């Protein structure tokens, strides 16, 4: 046998390395001595040694069984802890996914609020609807007033045009009358001159 095989078999026989193989060897040797003992005292001494060795083997076996049971319970406990850890990891992934959704929603809400604030600032620079209606009403009244003023000015302008036309007609008639009077005066003077000339002859 190679050294590795010897060590492996020794470990299998020895269990957890508490020296069980040595105790068994001692028990076999004690049994052989007990069988070959010559006197009763030597046989009783070997018998006590065998009982002591058996007690040690039973104690070691009980200890090994307790360790085995403890290992089984530890394995069950580790499996439970492993399942708990897996459940915790799954719950953590779900929580992370939910947090990501909440972060995206919060980003959308923040973006919407920023857009609302920008629109509110733009709206604040413009008058409200009531004020705008008042301004439109005032502008309508002012436009109506200007229309009346325009009509009055046009009426006055038309009146002045007619008056100017009458004035021009009157001036023209007066000029015509003056020219006629001047022609009459010249005719009369010419006639008087002729009459004076005839009288002198």
UniProtKB/TrEMBL annotation:
Residues 180-201 are annotated as: Disordered. Residues 75-102 form a coiled coil. It comes from the Eukaryota. Keywords: Coiled coil, Nucleus. One of its GO terms (biological process) is mRNA export from nucleus. GO terms for cellular component: THO complex part of transcription export complex. Pfam families: THOC7 (PF05615). The keyword Coiled coil applies. It is found in: Nucleus. Belongs to the THOC7 family. Component of the THO subcomplex of the TREX complex which is thought to couple mRNA transcription, processing and nuclear export, and which specifically associates with spliced mRNA and not with unspliced pre-mRNA. Required for efficient export of polyadenylated RNA. Plays a key structural role in the oligomerization of the THO-DDX39B complex. This is THOC7 protein. It comes from Polioptila caerulea.
């Amino acid at each position: 046998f190679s050294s590795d095989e010897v060590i492996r078999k020794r470990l299998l026989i020895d269990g957890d390395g508490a020296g069980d193989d040595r105790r068994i060897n001692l028990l076999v040797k004690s049994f052989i001595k007990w069988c070959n003992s010559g006197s009763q005292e030597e046989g009783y001494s070997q018998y006590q040694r065998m009982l002591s060795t058996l007690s040690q083997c039973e104690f070691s076996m009980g200890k090994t069984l307790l360790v085995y049971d403890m290992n089984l319970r530890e394995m069950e406990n580790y499996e439970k802890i492993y399942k708990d850890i897996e459940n915790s990891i799954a719950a953590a992934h779900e929580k992370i996914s939910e947090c990501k959704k909440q972060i995206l929603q919060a980003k959308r809400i923040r973006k919407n609020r920023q857009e609302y604030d920008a629109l509110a600032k733009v709206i604040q620079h413009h008058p409200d609807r009531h004020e705008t209606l008042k301004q439109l009403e005032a502008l309508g009244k002012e436009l109506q007033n200007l229309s009346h003023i325009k009509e009055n000015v046009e009426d006055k302008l038309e009146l002045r045009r007619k008056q100017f036309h009458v004035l021009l007609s009157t001036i023209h008639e007066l000029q015509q009358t003056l020219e006629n009077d001047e022609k009459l005066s010249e005719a009369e003077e010419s006639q008087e001159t002729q009459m004076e000339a005839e009288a002198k002859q």
